[in-house]
Amino acid sequence: MNAPVLSVTSLVKRFGHLTAVDDVSFELMPGASLGIVGESGSGKTTTARILAGLEQPTSGTVTLDGEIVGGQSRRARLRQARLLQMIFQDPYGSFDPRRTVAESIAEPLRLHAPGPAAAHRARVGELLDQVGLSARAGESLPRELSGGQRQRAAIARALGIAPRVLVLDEAVAALDVSIQAQILTLLDELRRDTGISYVFVSHDLAVVRYITDTAVVMRHGRIVERGETEQILRSPRHPYTRLLLDSIPSPGWDLDRVARDRRALDAL
Ligand SMILES: Nc1ncnc2c1ncn2[C@@H]1O[C@H](COP(=O)(O)OP(=O)(O)OP(=O)(O)O)[C@@H](O)[C@H]1O
Fold first, then answer.
1. What ipTM was estimated for this complex?
2. Which residue intervals define the domain ABC transporter in the entry (predicted)?
């Protein structure tokens, strides 16, 4: 039996009186894809940020490849970044606007895998190719690329150091639907080819259905339902999951019923 590449145990994050993440636990096996779904404010992003070390938990642990992470030493932070990389909704802010995309993709290589510049250049070429970007796109500045191309570049940069886990926070939410499909297909191929694991944070159940095997549903910081994604979406057990599903516009959509169910759930 394989060991999980990522385990999260009893994670809690408080901001003052607000408990944003409340006793969250889950495991991710090598090559698996786990969805974290829930409405705005349910604690998804805070959970993702803790995984990436961008936020410290109030309590609980994150274990990556058998070792608890969260240490603040340079060595500990480098190890966490080497094993787990994060992709944001719009990576624009995380690219240096004055550097070419290829230079930005090379940066983590220089930090984590020091070597001759020519080797880095060759690796950047491979990475651009792997995510479907031309060498010309690599020579562009971030603002010269489309949203979809920028997301491809962000994926290339994250993959360069061969992390075990990619945490994607609403990674396709800002893209047109046809571009979303291209990025999701790319992510699917990359997972098949490299055996990388995903934690895929999204409010979009259709996207989660496509890209994940299992999922957890978060509400008010807690996990209210978990299991195989297909099973959860086909026969949700928790009223909140049913409400999320009913909130998707579809033929015969009953907005009054959704509003009624929400009032009933909020009163619980
Ligand atoms: N730095 C912070 N300081 C104070 N409160 C915060 C902070 N970050 C998040 N919160 C609060 O924690 C709760 C969970 O937020 P979080 O962003 O994790 O939810 P989410 O499910 O990702 O929602 P969204 O999709 O809107 O980001 C919210 O009530 C939010 O206002």
1. 0.96
2. 6-245
- Please identify, by atom number, the ligand 1 atom nearest to the C-alpha of residue 49: 18
The model's pTM is: 0.92
Residues for the chain: how many in total? Answer: 268
Residue 109 corresponds to which amino acid? L
Q: Which atom of ligand 1 is nearest to the CA of 169?
A: 22
User: What number does CATH give the domain 6-237?
Assistant: 3.40.50.300
How far apart are the CA of 20 and the centre of ligand 1, in A? 6
Q: Classify residue 203 by its DSSP letter.
A: S
Residue intervals in the chain for CATH 3.40.50.300: 6-237
Query: pLDDT in tens for each of the 268 residues of the chain?
Result: 589 999 999 999 999 999 999 999 999 999 999 999 998 899 999 999 999 999 999 999 999 999 999 888 888 999 999 999 999 998 777 799 999 999 999 999 998 888 888 889 999 999 999 999 999 999 999 999 999 999 999 999 999 999 999 999 999 998 888 899 999 999 999 999 999 999 999 999 989 999 999 999 999 999 999 999 999 999 988 888 888 888 776 666 676 776 777 777 777 6
| Residue located nearest, by CA, to atom 30 of ligand 1 | 41
Q: Is 37 in the pocket of ligand 1 (CB under 6 A)?
A: no
In DSSP notation, 36-56 reads: EE--TTSSHHHHHHHHTTSS-
Can you tell me whether residue 184 is helix, strand or coil?
helix
